[in-house]
Write a structure and sequence with these properties.
Blueprint: H1 3-21, E1 28-33, H2 43-56, E2 61-66, H3 75-85, E3 90-93, H4 95-98, H5 117-125, H6 127-137, E4 141-153, E5 155-158, E6 173-176, H7 180-188, E7 192-195, H8 201-206, E8 212-215, H9 217-222, E9 231-233, E10 239-247, H10 248-253, H11 256-290, E11 294-296, H12 301-312, H13 322-341, H14 343-353
Parallel strand pairs: 1-2, 1-3, 6-7, 6-8, 9-11
Antiparallel strand pairs: 3-10, 4-10, 5-8, 5-9
Length: 357
């Protein structure tokens, strides 16, 4: 058993001993992991959330937030294993990797399904999110219904050439997270998907282990990927966010009044985080362009506004052909994933976004 795992086991044992006492004076100590740096769009909001919970529970529930998964070997997949086993109490994770345990969670990243943040949140705060919550519970994981933190629509950034159309991806080594849908998307686009965890991404781009990566702009900013990539193609090909999760047994052990305090503050601080991140992703186009990144934009309203600002500063633009991406995915891609997710989840998704494929 490695040192990190030993530490987690010991800490959780103390929590469960406290729970067994069954008194109101019992206190619970827990850990919250997330995969981004301390200076990120997750860390401060999670820290503030749990500080407020500690205050409102008079210190009975104290949760410490650890950035970059406390440097756990195995990063997100390793932390997910600990969460499911009960060795970790709280964790934030995008659906694409949560799918390792709860396959239908990958539906959150269905390519070209969502067209706005509001649409994403309606689906995931509503019936689709409730369905995902039930599937998580069946695997020993509690998903907070209003706990989906914003990350943003994903864009493609590359080292030495822009992506104007899907054919430009042919043969490119594209870093993707460790989720099957990510690999499937970029295989269909004829790229070579390479799975690398987020902590190792900067080095992989710098050494040219990969030719590009895809993430919301906020990830490019907080992980300093602008230092090792030059071109950005605004594709909005997938949306991703971070589901706030708990070990189900630990969550169920908390008194009802404490759960109510947590739920109320989750809803409050996640709403603040979403608004902050949406605004940050808008601002980052200007900031990254000023650092020398070149944007290749599609024509939604936000990117038109961003294009005007950056063009006035002398930046170079190419208009990408989004239809070429959709054509390569085709109906077969969507039919495969519809079969994978099942008719119930698929119908809940299409209720919000319309017919896919």
């Amino acid at each position: 058993m490695n040192a990190v795992r030993r530490r987690l086991v010991v800490a959780t044992g103390l929590v469960l001993t406290g729970c067994a006492a069954g008194t109101r004076e019992t206190s619970w100590k827990a850990r919250q992991f997330h995969n981004q740096p301390a200076q990120s769009h997750q860390h401060q909001f999670l820290s503030d959330l749990w500080a407020q919970v500690a205050k409102e529970t008079d210190g009975r529930l104290q949760v410490t937030t650890y950035p970059q998964n406390d440097n756990l070997p195995g990063s997100d997949p390793g932390a997910l294993d600990l969460l499911q086993s009960g060795e970790l109490e709280f964790f934030t994770l995008m659906g694409g990797i949560l799918g390792r345990k709860v396959p239908v969670a990958e539906i959150q990243g269905m390519p070209f399904a969502f067209t706005s943040h509001a649409q994403v949140h309606r689906a995931n705060d509503g019936a689709l999110g409730a369905y995902l919550g039930r599937e998580c519970a069946a695997k020993g994981i509690y998903r907070f219904q209003y706990g989906l933190l914003e990350n943003g629509f994903r864009q493609i950034s590359t080292v030495d050439k822009p992506i104007r159309a899907a054919d430009d991806l042919r043969g490119m080594r594209m870093r993707v997270p460790d989720g099957q849908m990510f690999r499937d998307v970029f295989t269909a686009l004829e790229a070579q998907p390479v799975t690398i965890n987020i902590r190792e991404l900067y080095a992989a781009l710098k050494s040219r282990q990969v030719d590009g990566q895809e993430n919301p702009l906020v990830i490019t900013e907080v992980n300093r990927l602008y230092e090792v990539t030059k071109y950005v193609s605004t594709t909005n090909h997938m949306w991703s966010g971070f589901n706030l999760l708990a070990n189900l047994k630990f969550w169920s052990s908390l008194p009802g009044d404490m759960q109510e305090i947590v739920q109320r503050n989750v809803k409050k601080y996640v709403a603040l985080q979403r608004a902050y991140t949406d605004d940050l992703n808008r601002q980052l186009g200007d900031k990254l362009a000023a650092r020398g990144m070149i944007f290749n934009t599609y024509t939604d309203d936000l990117n038109r506004q961003l294009g005007d600002k950056l063009a006035a500063r002398g930046m170079i633009f190419n208009t990408a052909d989004v239809s070429s991406f959709r054509a390569k995915l085709g109906g077969g891609f969507y039919q495969r994933w519809k079969s994978e997710f099942g008719p119930a989840a698929w119908s809940l998704l299409e209720r919000e976004v319309g017919t896919l494929g």
